[in-house]
Amino acid sequence: MRNFLKICLAFIFGIFVILALGFFFVSKNPVNHPIRSSDKHHIFVVFLGDSLTYGVGDQTREQGYTGRTIKLLEKTFPEYRFSFKNFGKPGDRSDQILKRLNHSTEQQAAVKKADAVVMTVGGNDLRQQFMRYANAPDKIQLSRDIRQGEDRYKQSLTSLLSRIHELRTQAPLFLFGNYNPIFVNTASRNDINQDVQGYNAINKQLAESQQGGHYLSVFRQLTYGQYQGRTQIKQLVKEDRIYNGQLANPLQSALLRGRDKIKNNYISSADHFHPNNLGYDYMSKTLFNSMRENNQWQKK
């Protein structure tokens, strides 16, 4: 009988040790286990990125596309309660967004709990390249210099998305592309559009390679604004060639000071760079339509 009791006690002790070790290793590995809120009626959205996420240029105090998107979601999905955190910071490049994320326990906790993560990135990386090489002797040299920065940007964005993936577990990711804010006043410089599209291709490729990743394009609407027709664009090109002949360096002038010779109705007249209310309306509708179609964020 004593031997039987000893065997039972040893067996029970062994089970206890296994369970204890299992709990220890699970608690040390939270990334592998989704910690999204168990409240099926609450949806938490986290916004990361630069000034576009922050909402620079928005005159409605709705934090740009972020607040607008939440309003659209609330109206369309009344069965849910929505809340969000906006961690956008003006001027941040991809490496700076990653640095802030790695140094902020608040951001990390928010991304872990998120039901959806949304980000704008790349505009400042590209703008830095343009500013660095704005004095290039010709547009061929400029594009060559800009393309050299694409590999660095791809590496930087890969690191950023990898870190977000570690934190967001099952939450889908929605990643915006960028646009050319100065097109209507530099219409003859098609090379700038090509450079922006080069960076956008990186965003698209890396976003769609992520599990639950979705790419959002706003290039055409925000770049061309109200000038969507071929005839309108040709006229912009013609006027730009005439006007640029009066400037020593039209590209640098447009980048540094902004020009309002012609207005893009989707871009802020305050800085000629960020979206205005109409531009943010378009961004929010683009995001909303993608979230409605790709509804992994909804809790069953």
UniProtKB/TrEMBL annotation:
The keyword Secreted does not apply. The chain crosses the membrane at residues 7-26. Coiled coil: none annotated. Residues 47-281 form the SGNH hydrolase-type esterase domain. Keywords: Hydrolase, Membrane, Transmembrane, Transmembrane helix. One of its GO terms (molecular function) is phosphatidylcholine lysophospholipase activity. Pfam families: Lipase_GDSL_2. InterPro entries: Ester_Hydrolysis_Enzymes, SGNH_hydro, SGNH_hydro_sf. The keyword Nuclease does not apply. It comes from the Bacteria. This is Lipase/Acylhydrolase. It comes from Oenococcus kitaharae DSM 17330.
